[in-house]
Amino acid sequence: MRPSGRDLSEMRPVSIETGFTKHAEGSCLIKIGDTHVLCTATIEDRVPPFIKGSGLGWVTAEYGMLPRATNTRMRREASAGKQGGRTVEIQRLIGRALRAGVDRVALGERQITVDCDVIQADGGTRCAAITGGWVALRLAVNKLMKAGDVISDPLLDPVAAVSCGIYAGQPVLDLDYPEDSEAGVDGNFIMTGSGKLIEVQMSAEGSVFSRDQMDQLLTLAEKGVGELVAAQKAATA
């Protein structure tokens, strides 16, 4: 039995509220269970120096957690004078994931920055950030297309992510914090709407896992991502 009472292949409730902030070109508040992430997308008519003049666009991301997103207060990274290693790793992951679904030629020489701020954490924050980040990106690109600044749609396929793991010896979908903190195996699966893999992060945390178990987790991930993509499409329709 899972602590939440969910079935092994059952996602937490998912909701996506678009237009959550006034000023960003694209924004949403994504809630996956008790994990809540605010995602905003900002369009800028510039690109990093290493692609300047290439005609290619760029999508990047920043990620952070509010001090009381967790059970105990975390010190703001700004007050420490630098980002932690976990933060840097996650925001690079989000950027890589979102770029995988973008035609950078069609985007043109501009940058879209997706900011993902965790308001409340209960497991799977990076996955929620990627899933909500794509929604914010979709809304920002819609504005570019409506204004005629982009001729063809640069978003090739939705991008979403979900966690899966081995908890109490069973493969489970969409780990919440009680499961994530005790899972013997933990994985994050980032996929496109058409079912293609972008990135898989898998690690044994106290027990090893077999090829068969990994295949079971991938099957669960495909189901979860399918549900998340359906939620993304409904939110941006």
From TrEMBL:
CDD domains: RNase_PH_bact. It catalyses: tRNA(n+1) + phosphate = tRNA(n) + a ribonucleoside 5'-diphosphate. It is an enzyme of class 2 (transferase). Pfam families: RNase_PH (PF01138), RNase_PH_C (PF03725). Keywords: Nucleotidyltransferase, RNA-binding, rRNA processing, Transferase, tRNA processing, tRNA-binding. InterPro entries: ExoRNase_PH_dom1, ExoRNase_PH_dom2, ExoRNase_PH_dom2_sf, PNPase/RNase_PH_dom_sf, Ribosomal_Su5_D2-typ_SF, RNase_PH, RNase_PH_bac-type, RNase_PH_CS. PROSITE patterns: RIBONUCLEASE_PH (PS01277). GO terms for molecular function: 3'-5'-RNA exonuclease activity; tRNA binding; tRNA nucleotidyltransferase activity. Phosphate binds at R86, G124, T125, R126. Residues 10-140, 157-224 form the Exoribonuclease phosphorolytic domain. One of its GO terms (biological process) is rRNA 3'-end processing. SUPFAM superfamilies: Ribonuclease PH domain 2-like, Ribosomal protein S5 domain 2-like. Phosphorolytic 3'-5' exoribonuclease that plays an important role in tRNA 3'-end maturation. Removes nucleotide residues following the 3'-CCA terminus of tRNAs; can also add nucleotides to the ends of RNA molecules by using nucleoside diphosphates as substrates, but this may not be physiologically important. Probably plays a role in initiation of 16S rRNA degradation (leading to ribosome degradation) during starvation. Belongs to the RNase PH family. HAMAP family: RNase_PH (MF_00564). This is Ribonuclease PH. It comes from Ruegeria marisrubri.
